[in-house]
Each structure stands twice: as C-alpha cells, then as structure tokens.
C-alpha cells in the first residue's frame, strides 16, 4: 500500500462517518452535543485507522526492498556450471567455484600451463599456473562481490606462506572486492593484487569476446 492509497482510505472513512453522524443528528433533531460528537468521532476513527493500517512506503523504498531481496538470492558456493554457461553469466550470478574456473579459463586462454588444486588440501591456493618468464605462480581467489568485505592482511600472509606447498616463487591474490589498507601495506614484492577493477577492465571484456 502506497501513501496515496492509505490517505484515500482514511479520508473516505472519515467523510462517510461524518455524513452519517450529521444526517442522524439533523434528522432526529438531536441536541448540540450530538452535533459536536458527530464532528469529533470521525476524526478519532481516522486517527485509529492511521495507526492500524500498514505504513506507506515510497517508490524509492520499494525499489530498495526489491533490490535487497534480489541480492539475497543465494548461489551455492560449490555450484559449477559448464564453461560455456559461466562465460555468459554476469559476475554477481557466478558462484565462488565458478569464479575460480573462470580465472582458470582466462589463464588457459593466455597460453599458460595451469591446473586447479584439489579443494580442502590446497592451503588456500585455487590455481597454479606457469608463466613463461616468471615461472610457477600460486593464485588465491575470493568472491566478495556486492559486499563491503575487503581482503584482510591475514589472508595475504597465508597466501605468501602456502605458495611454498607448490614450490611457487610468485603469487597472485584475486578478488571481486578490494584489499584493506593493512593488506596493501604488507603486500610482498612477489605477490600481485587483482581486485574488481581488474575484472572490469580485463576479465569482463575477455568474457564478451570468448
């Protein structure tokens, strides 16, 4: 119910009651007290209705509510659609697992030798690829699109340590969000940061061409 509908209902009830009380008072030639009561009672009923009826919401509030509901539609983190379908999806409809696959396909298209690690025993590493010049690089990917969550410095330290499990000298941290200030300040020289800007400038245009 919007504000206009709510106001219309209250006014209609008030007018109907007012006319009914006035008509009853005049037809029965009742005293001045009844006439005053016929003016006051509709106002009281209108006040009660304003408290009972649902509060009106503006168009802007309705739009925000719909947007919030849409954002709450959960996508299983482990869902993995076929590669062709992943490449057609917008980032906000891609699961965490599909984002890892998307990055794997991207590096594969660049001609890099790479492989996806097995979940649960990767030490946070999602992909390992071999760069023609830099050698093996360990990649960790976090899908936080649409949230205010930033990559904390603790995850940077973990990646820098776990890359040794795959004998990698270099590492990359990829996220659809941003890196916190402490994380940026403590970034190792051998680690590359790729945030949502990288997706917008590099991955999304590549997806459209694929």
TrEMBL record:
Top class in the EC scheme: hydrolase
Gene Ontology MF terms in the entry: endonuclease activity; hydrolase activity
Record-listed E.C. numbers: 3.1.21.-
Membrane-spanning residues: 9-27, 33-53
Superkingdom in the source lineage: Bacteria
PANTHER family: MRR RESTRICTION SYSTEM PROTEIN, TYPE IV METHYL-DIRECTED RESTRICTION ENZYME ECOKMRR
Name of the protein: Restriction endonuclease
